[in-house]
Write the structure tokens for this entry.
Amino acid sequence: MSAAPRPQAPHPPLKGPQLAMGTLALSLAVFMNVLDSSIANVSIPAISGNLGVSPQQGTWVITSFAVANAISVPLTGWLTTHFGQVRLFLSSILLFVISSWLCGMAPNIEILIAARILQGAVAGPMIPLSQALLLGSYPPSKSSMALALWGMTTLVAPIMGPLLGGWISDNYTWPWIFYINIPVGLFTAWATWSIYRKRESQIKNLPIDKVGLFLLVIWVGALQLMLDKGKELDWFNSGEIILLTVVAVVGLIYFVIWELGQDHPVVDLSLFKGRNFSAGVIAISIGYGLFFGSLVIMPLWLQTQLSYTATEAGKVMAPVGIFAILLSPIIGKILPKVDARKIASAAFLGFALVFFLRSGFNTEVDTYTLLIPTLIQGAAMSMFFIPLTSIILSGQPPDKIPAASGLSNFVRIMCGGMGASIMTTIWDSRSTLHHAQMTELTGSSYPTFVQSMQNLIQQGIPEQGAYAIIDRTISVQASTMAATDIFWMSAYMFIGLIGLVWLTKPKKSAVPVDAGGAH
């Protein structure tokens, strides 16, 4: 490939109102995007009921978005070289607005799923490009602060999604979970065009890697479907899941072999040759998988076992954003002066403490005890994304930032989905195991069981009803023990990730100062 000429001219950092408006616009785009990946989750019963389909069919509203999004995220670098950062970002926002409108207007499940596929596909480049544009908007010395402001939106949106989705579904109609994107998206598009239209990146006319693109769609689509449908179809007891797994593994092997032999690959796997990139991506992805899995397990446990309502469970989880928002700008300010690995290590220690505390939960846990780890988790989150992202992008030339950001976000998002699937599966299997073990201690030869039965019968409860009550009590206890098993395991895994962080060697000013300043 002819060495592409350097970008036409360095873009000077933005200043004053333009910088503030640019930061707001880029952050809102990320918020809207991340929010939409989780806002539909709590609205599935309302959507499926309204469209006359089963809740299982309704879950395709989530799956279709996730599959399309997972495929398009790693294409960001390749698409950027063809269309330019600003053009691609603006197109993504406008198409996201149109697809949101189509989702809300959908008269049946088929059109809704088609609109969600479009929405997921066009959402892919938005997160990596917002990162790249934001870094280019700030002077090198302030790039840590840029990442901190960007990180806040990615931390708060997953928590706001279920809360907002539930509130809208309860008080309005489900199409409004999609319509709220329209004013936000139009404002973001207008602000982006006003500020960034003269800051376009260089465009290169490279050949299209059709085989690589085809293989990417095949293996990522198969993997995402396998993760989404595995629990529902009883994992590897299902021929469909086995087939999807084989397709995903074989497709991935062929994809890697093909891409490594291409001059213009659709995904730049050579980025993994860099120690900072590869170790940083593995650390942030496994950490995010553990964190995201807990975001799924905690509300489920509270609602299904401790009889919390969706709103009450949301309130228990929501404070995680408080310290994340308060501390992120402070972390952004001190990061250039401190080794990013130390801050990332502190984050993992914070997460380990959170999960150790949660591993002590029981069925009598009160709200105050639930909230303490949640608040600490917010502090850990503020030290998690920013330093690890800075390590991953450290030393990357500016033209590689969209590709590096896209690929790292792709692996992280995929690990988030895997974390949720794996944790819910472990939770189910451990619950079954604990239930079986505790059931062995019931029967006429166990005085505690006999006493419990007598107490219930004396209260006027029939024998069958008494058995049902005891079985329910055992189920709640088993599920709680299974959840605490997962929290205990997660705590040790976070401690193990600290070693991975110290395999990297970021520069003193670890954020892509090169990236931000090489313009």
Q: What stands out?
A: The mean pLDDT is 79. Residues 209-265 form one domain. Residues 74 and 399 are 15 Å apart (CA to CA). The chain has 23 helices and no strands.
